[in-house]
Structure formats: structure tokens, C-alpha cells
Write a structure and sequence with these properties.
Number of strands: 8
CATH architecture: Alpha-Beta Barrel
Bound molecules: phosphoenolpyruvate
Shape: globular
Largest sheet: 8 strands, parallel, barrel
Order of helices and strands: EHEHEHEHHEHHEHHEHEH
Number of helices: 11
Low-confidence stretches: none
Mean pLDDT: 96
Helix content: 40-55%
Structural class: alpha/beta
Number of domains: 1
Distance between the termini: 14 Å
CATH class: Alpha Beta
Strand content: 5-15%
Strand order of the largest sheet: 1-2-3-4-5-6-7-8
CATH superfamily: Aldolase class I
């Protein structure tokens, strides 16, 4: 039995006042949750958010990290720094990192290995563009992105990892994959992992991400291989995020 996980990816949004308000609402609602809830604020606000998460069951995560341990990497943030700030998870290979900042499968794999070695739980994002879906290449793309990490890191490094299926065409667009589309790709991801280790494949959490909201969450999460969500826009609205968490726990 996999415990559902709902992760909020705040991206580059919010300020101190907004975050105090959002976290006050989330921590009030967090009490009796039967799922895992995670928030991933902008890095500069990790310490502020930790003030809230340290006294409740909400976990803290980062949106990205350097693959390098330390040194002359201006603007980068290390895994040691994330550990120091109390992060448990780190999102890796988000499509915005891949498309806007040129992160290749190789870089994502290097970050994945470094994260696991540093004791953080990676949330590995995979997903196809609209063009790739329309040309029937969805499973090939997701498989390539996933296998690049399996081949480089080794399947054992997936023991505490999370995979997020995020069709690029559904991120921030208001278009959501249908429950059938999500389940098909999630099952394929689990099958690819099972080729290397069936035990890890059975226990790993595979999140769906792409315009999840309070209205569509229940239908998406009802699928056998959908173990929760990676939520962008709706994670910035306390009531919506809480409703999504309730849908995952239902
Ligand atoms: C995301 O950025 O991971 C995401 C899924 O965004 P949204 O929910 O806004 O589509």
C-alpha cells in the first residue's frame, strides 16, 4: 500500500507576507492527514517555511539543486545547503528546468545521484510535449527520460525516490490529462521500473502533475497507479491545495 503524496511546487511565486498567510492556512489544516504533504517554496524562503513545517506534518522540499557539492558555481544551491535547511525532497528534471535552462537527461541523472547520496528524496519529473504526444511518442519519451536515470544511477537509488509524470502540454495550461491518459503512462512508468526491480516498482510513488485542481484531483487520484500529485498553480491557493490533499486521502 503506497501512501499518497501531494507536493506543491510554488515555482517563482510569493513573498514573505504571502507565504506566512499560505503556511498558516496549510498548517491549520494539516493535523489529521493520512497522506504525505510537501511544499516546495522558492529557495530563498525555505527557512521561512521551515518555521511552519517543523511543528507540523508537512514536509519541506526544494525545486532544484546543483549536482556539484560546492565551489565556484555562482547562483547555485548545494545539497548540503538543502539538508542544512531541513529539506527532505528535491524536485529534479522539471520540464521548465529542461526546456528553459537546458537540463539534459545526463544532468538530471547526475543531480538524482547526488541527491540520493546526500540523503534527499528526489522527485524525478518526466513527460512529453504536445507534439510528442500527437506523434504517438509519449511512452518512448518518458521511457528515455526514466531509463537515462536508471542506467546512470542504478535502480537501487530509486528506493526512496518519487517519479512525477508531468505532460508538458498540461503544465500551467489548464489542460489536464484524462484519467485514462494518466493511468496509461503511470502504468508504463511502473512497468519500466519493474524491468529492473519489481519490488521498488511496486512501492514507488508516481505522481501526476499538470493543471491538477480541486475539481479534477479526485478523478485523477482514483487511478491505480496514480499516487498523488505534483501541483503548481493550485498549490498557491490554500483552499484548493487542501481540497486536493483531501482528494488524495479519500
Ligand atoms: C508543475 O509545475 O509541476 C505543475 C504541475 O504546474 P500546474 O499545476 O500549474 O500545471
Amino acid at each position: 500500500m503506497r501512501t499518497a503524496l501531494v507536493a506543491g511546487n510554488w515555482k517563482m511565486n510569493g513573498d514573505s507576507a504571502f507565504i506566512n498567510e499560505l503556511m498558516s492556512s496549510l498548517t491549520t489544516a494539516a493535523g489529521s492527514s493520512n497522506i504525505d504533504v510537501l511544499v516546495c517554496p522558492p529557495a530563498v524562503y525555505l527557512s521561512q517555511v521551515k518555521e511552519f513545517t517543523q511543528s507540523c506534518s508537512i514536509a519541506l522540499g526544494a525545486q532544484n539543486v546543483s549536482e556539484h557539492p560546492n565551489g565556484a558555481f555562482t547562483g547555485e544551491i548545494s545539497l548540503a545547503m538543502l539538508n542544512d535547511l531541513g529539506c527532505e525532497y528535491v524536485i529534479l528534471g522539471h520540464s521548465e528546468r529542461r526546456s528553459l535552462y537546458g537540463e539534459t537527461d545526463t544532468v538530471v541523472a547526475d543531480k538524482f545521484i547526488a541527491a540520493v547520496d546526500a540523503g534527499l528524496k528526489p522527485i524525478l519529473c518526466v513527460g512529453e510535449t504536445l507534439e510528442e504526444r500527437e506523434s504517438g511518442a509519449t511512452i518512448d519519451i518518458v521511457s528515455r527520460q526514466l531509463k537515462a536515470v536508471i542506467d546512470s544511477a542504478g535502480i537501487d537509488k530509486f528506493s526512496d525516490a518519487v517519479v512525477a509524470y508531468e505532460p508538458v502540454w498540461a503544465i500551467g495550461t489548464g489542460k489536464t490529462a484524462t484519467a485514462e491518459q494518466a493511468q496509461e503512462v503511470h502504468a508504463a512508468i511502473r512497468a519500466i521500473l519493474a524491468e529492473s526491480d519489481s519490488v521498488i516498482a511496486a512501492k514507488i510513488r508516481i505522481l501526476y502533475g499538470g493543471s491538477v485542481n480541486a475539481a479534477n484531483a479526485a478523478e485523477l487520484f482514483a487511478n491505480e497507479d496514480v499516487d498523488g500529485g505534483l501541483v503548481g498553480g493550485a498549490s498557491l491557493k490554500a483552499n484548493d491545495f487542501i481540497a486536493i490533499c483531501h482528494a488524495a486521502g479519500a
